[in-house]
Amino acid sequence: MTNDSYSSKIDIRARERALKILYEKFYDVLKDVSEGRPPKLVIKKRTLGNTIYDAERKLLLLGDATFERSLLDLREARKFMQTLLMAGIIYEALSNGEYPTIRDLYYRGKHTIRYRKLPTKSIGEENTWEEQAESDSVLRDIEVFSNVLREEMLILSKEKGKVVGDLKIRSGDDIIDLSKMGHGAYSIEPTPDLIDFVEVNAELVLVIEKDAVFQQLHRIGFWKKYRAILITSAGQPDRATRRFVRRLNEELGLPVYVISDSDPYGYYIYSVFKTGSITLSYESERLATPHARFLGVMMTDIFGSTKLGKKPYLTEEERRNFIIRAKERDIKRARELKEYPWFKSERWQIELNEFLDRKVKLEIEALAGKGLKFLADKYVPEKIEVGDWIE
Amino acid sequence: MTNDSYSSKIDIRARERALKILYEKFYDVLKDVSEGRPPKLVIKKRTLGNTIYDAERKLLLLGDATFERSLLDLREARKFMQTLLMAGIIYEALSNGEYPTIRDLYYRGKHTIRYRKLPTKSIGEENTWEEQAESDSVLRDIEVFSNVLREEMLILSKEKGKVVGDLKIRSGDDIIDLSKMGHGAYSIEPTPDLIDFVEVNAELVLVIEKDAVFQQLHRIGFWKKYRAILITSAGQPDRATRRFVRRLNEELGLPVYVISDSDPYGYYIYSVFKTGSITLSYESERLATPHARFLGVMMTDIFGSTKLGKKPYLTEEERRNFIIRAKERDIKRARELKEYPWFKSERWQIELNEFLDRKVKLEIEALAGKGLKFLADKYVPEKIEVGDWIE
Predict the structure, then answer these.
(1) What is the DSSP string of B279-335?
(2) Over the stretch A336-382, which tens digit does the pLDDT of each residue have?
(3) Which value does ipTM take for this structure?
(4) Do B60 and B53 contact (CB within 8 A), yes or no?
């Protein structure tokens, strides 16, 4: 296969851009070496201590603290070499028109270095890296250092996100009409920044945590009737799904509503869409959707709330049949959530306290079990209409 | 939403068909009741003892042993009631134009029955079912009894399978060109029997276990160059992906090649495509692809084989960097596989013995790590050309 013969024009442009930035960013290191100076990299710290919740922008962001990674510092020499090794592998893959994954980057770089120990001159052996956790961490350093996300370096990954709706996009060399997917759906590409929005005819975005419920709402025609773009993250959202949702909100101005199970894991899935994830805060700037709204399922949807003047959506009998007792780890997780700054709003504290008082949870499927038409034609549209979401 | 206003014509027809069959199948039970006879159901046993490997057809199938489920047999009364309850829920869902999932069928049927105990006349309580495992098992009985798969009853589920390639299909009311998916892919619908193949321009089907490797081969244009339909099961294949692959093989006459990790779990994924799964043997007749070929990754691809006159695809250094030591559970699983009738062929025994001798495994990603072009332009096409697969 000759280079690029089958790559889309968009990929070729993206590749050239990434090559250029990587070259510029690492040029100083090469210059240091060639001019006999001890080479070093200055990188923002990705520690919890340097992860800051920006209450105004409603984002988890990296702070300004940096560290120096120097070849001639014994504690840092290994990491320094790993960083240059990884940068070299990515540069080579881009030059060759390849599309590595984080798993195969690990394999590409994995080998044993033999060296002569001083002063005995015996032979020592050291692996470039042992586990993928190590190579992944190095890749994150490169993302932070170069300010280029791995997707922009055409590093691919497993993708779970799906979408249907009245939206035409350009991806690769094709124009795709997401309203013409039949009973299936469009599986979002790993590099959603390379998508162009060509034509949109929708009023809102509805993100469903569970793939099976997405299938149900799709099949019943929910997105046609309510002019929605329907998305599923199929559980914990991956980076591509988050970026795609953010772009729909930011560039098309569409309000984003998220529906998850009513338990701390569901609430956290929403917060990953909205605020970002704690471990990968450097991506939030691009991946988070600060205006995403939590539509449900809320504890106050299940039990109602005199404080909020809300009637419950479930009868007492339905509650008896549908709710599940919370496990110890659910309760522990809810207590953690209560302490996160982005769950400190009065509205979230009501939900979390209700959860901790009742110690029960509810799956979205229970609402579909009450009737798909209840879910599609009452619960979702009514809550949107009266504004019963958490911002 | 009025009935069917947004359902595709195909769904409306499928619904009518399922309603008719269910009605006919359960009619005798209703007749028994109305004419004062003790009602009963005769259902094929889904036990391991009644699961037979048909060596000629190369399929795991249900045998002919049946059991009677009778209302007036105390041991069976609960199951009998559950079966009628589930059939009723499905019938009602179909009549209402709904699309239940197995999870919400569980919720739809879950409630507590209060009854008066004899002889004390105190009040007893019994739940229709406790866990989803119970309602799922009842659903399987209905599939076996009515000879209608749950997909034909428009029961939906989470779907992981994706496809790209030069193939036009009709799904719902749309015609979809699977060669125009850009960098994304088409996510297969939960009801693949409702798909029509409109136009095909391909010579083979390549099924990749790992979603990320599928993304890589797609992006590098593998399917264009080799006229392939490229599919991923994203791990253990779901029913829809298996049925879709089977239809490509049976109806379009395309050879099917499967690539998985080289370890017992990977080999078993292939065998689920080919032979069916042990726990759900009643589906094999429709879902399995007996002619599916295991292309790799084989132990003999890694180490070569003097017996087979094969050279290894990896150098000694690559083996050192790429192979992973097998865990105790891998070895245990390989020993189980060796005893399954459908792994008893001489060719499979060579692979399994090699695995048990070496006690190492290899991921597909390691081959992509050796170079995506190696995987796409040498390994896969060369093995297909020389016929180095296991039937």
Answers:
(1) TTGGGHHHH--TT-EEEE--HHHHH-BTTTTB--SS-HHHHHHH-EEPPHHHHHHHH
(2) 999 999 999 999 999 999 999 999 999 999 999 899 999 999 999 99
(3) 0.94
(4) yes
- Range of the structural domain that residue B356 is part of: 162-386
A-chain CB neighbours of B110 within 8 Å are: 321-322, 369
Q: What digits encode the pLDDT tens for the residues B86-122?
A: 999 999 999 999 999 999 999 999 988 888 888 888 8
pLDDT of A51: 86
In this structure, are B167 and B149 located in the same domain? no
Whether B118 is covered by a domain: the verdict is yes
Closest-CA distance, B58 to chain A, in angstroms, reads 30
CATH code of A143's domain: 1.10.10.10
**Mean of pLDDT over chain B:** 93
Residue A295 lies in a domain: yes
Between A111 and A227, the more confident residue is A227
Residues of A whose CB is below 8 A from B319 = none
How many angstroms separate the CA atoms of B59 and B54, rounded? 5
Q: Are residues A173 and A144 in the same domain?
A: no
How many domains are contained in chain A? 2
Last residue of a domain, one of B121, B153, B185: B153
Q: Is the Cβ pair B101, A220 closer than 8 Å?
A: no
CB contact under 8 A, B182 and A171: yes
Would B2 be classed as within a structural domain?
Answer: no
Is residue A107 part of the annotated active site? The answer reads: yes
Does some domain include residue A3?
Answer: no
Same domain, B279 and B356: yes
Which residue is associated with the tokens 């980057």? Answer: A105
The confidence score (pLDDT) of residue A1 equals 39
Rg (CA), chain A: 24
Same domain for A214 and A141: no
pLDDT digits (tens, 9 = 90+) for B352-364: 999 999 999 999 9
Q: Are residues A216 and A135 in the same domain?
A: no
- B123/B190 same-domain check: no
Best CA proximity match to B23, nearest among B35, B11, B31: B31
Under 8 Å CB-to-CB from B58, ≥6 apart: which residues? Answer: B274, B275, B290, B342
> Which of A91, A107, A267, A270 is the catalytic position?
A107
CA pair distance B175, B196, nearest whole angstrom:
9
More confident residue, B338 or A60: B338
CATH number of the domain that residue B194 is part of: 3.40.1360.10
